[in-house]
Amino acid sequence: MEAIKIVQKWSKKHPRKTKKEAFLEMFPNALTDEDGYPSVSVCEILGNPEGINSCSECDVECKERWDEPAEVEE
Predict the structure, then answer these.
(1) How many whole angstroms separate alpha carbon 67 and alpha carbon 55?
(2) What span, in angstroms and rounded, lies between the C-alpha atoms of 22 and 71?
(3) Structural element, H or E, at residue 1
(4) Distance in angstroms (rounded) separating the CA atoms of residues 64 and 74
(5) Cβ neighbours, 10 Å, residue 43
(6) Which pTM does this prediction carry?
(7) DSSP character for 47?
(8) Are 58 and 50 in contact (CB under 8 A)?
(9) Secondary structure element (H or E) that encloses residue 4, with its range
């Protein structure tokens, strides 16, 4: 039980970086909307996980995609 508490405490202090945070670190001068999200869609940059090429056909809101955890490269 103590180990779980330690991991939970560490996780709260070290949240996973989102795609939005990673993108804005790489491109700090990117245009953003009034909420601070990149003006470009995630689908245009990374593609769509369902294989859809158009954001208008995507069921997931772009801001939700930007808030997903960033992929970790090892």
Answers:
(1) 16
(2) 9
(3) none
(4) 25
(5) 20
(6) 0.67
(7) -
(8) yes
(9) helix 2-13
HSE (side-chain half, CA atoms, 13 Å) at 71: 3
Confirm if 32 and 18 have CB atoms less than 8 A apart.
Answer: no
Residue 41: the pLDDT is 82
Q: In the 8-state DSSP scheme, what is residue 24?
A: H
Q: Tell me what the pLDDT averaged over the chain comes to.
A: 81
Could you give the CA distance from residue 43 to residue 33 in angstroms, rounded to a whole number?
16
- Nearest residue to 57 via CA among 69, 33, 41, 74: 41
14-66 residue pLDDT tens: 888 999 999 999 999 999 989 999 988 887 787 766 666 556 655 567 788 88
User: What is the residue whose two structure tokens read 């795609």?
Assistant: 19
Rounded CA gap, 20 and 24, in Å? 6
For position 74, what pLDDT does the model report?
Answer: 47
